[in-house]
Amino acid sequence: MTEPSPFWKTKPLEAMSEAEWESLCDGCGKCCMVLLEDEDTGELYETSVSCRLFDPEARRCSAYADRLRLVPGCVQVTPKNAGTLSWMPRSCAYRRLAEGRDLADWHPLVSGRPESVEEAGEAVSKDLRSEARVKASKLWRYVTRERD
């Protein structure tokens, strides 16, 4: 007997339940990193600084339900904008599916193991600094690499 295809292969993003949508988050933490943009070139740079609400141990937002109220710059990823947020990492499941790509083999929904994200080198460091502890004028000192 053939196993049914997983929901992310059969449903468009707009048709997913809230639980399905939320399960697409692989827990890498990349969307919670502070990014800097070169005003001249538009290039994005990752830093070793995270949003003040980010819990680096859990690699999750510590106030997920209230994040949009507590952090004015926080962007809620939705089925409508998932494919348009160019600052989202190319590895992000929301972006991948919106672009017509499949989930990566290290994604917990594929591997069946949440630790596969870290094992694949896709999870952010647990040693990130909180933006609450870094002056905005000093952020360029924390650039780690250009965002792909």
What does this structure look like?
The protein has 6 helices and 6 strands; from the N terminus they run ααββββααααββ. The chain has 148 residues and is α+β, with helices and mostly antiparallel strands. The protein has one domain. Strands 1, 2, 5 and 6 form a 4-stranded mixed β-sheet that branches. β3 and β4 form a beta hairpin. It is globular and about 60 Å long. The termini are far apart. Belongs to the UPF0260 family.
SSE layout:
Layout: H1 7-10, H2 18-23, E1 33-37, E2 44-50, E3 54-55, E4 60-61, H3 67-70, H4 93-98, H5 108-111, H6 116-119, E5 129-130, E6 143-146
Parallel strand pairs: 2-5
Antiparallel strand pairs: 1-2, 2-6, 3-4
Helix tally equals 6
Question: Can you summarize the main beta sheet?
Answer: 4 strands, mixed
Q: Strand fraction band?
A: 5-15%
Distance between the termini: 41 Å
Radius of gyration, in angstroms, nearest whole number: 16 Å
* Element pattern in H and E: HHEEEEHHHHEE
Give the mean pLDDT.
Answer: 94
Q: What is the percent of helical residues?
A: 10-25%
Structural class given helices, strands, pairing? alpha+beta
Provide the number of structural domains: 1
- Detail the poorly predicted runs: none
* Count of distinct strands: 6
Overall, the morphology is: globular
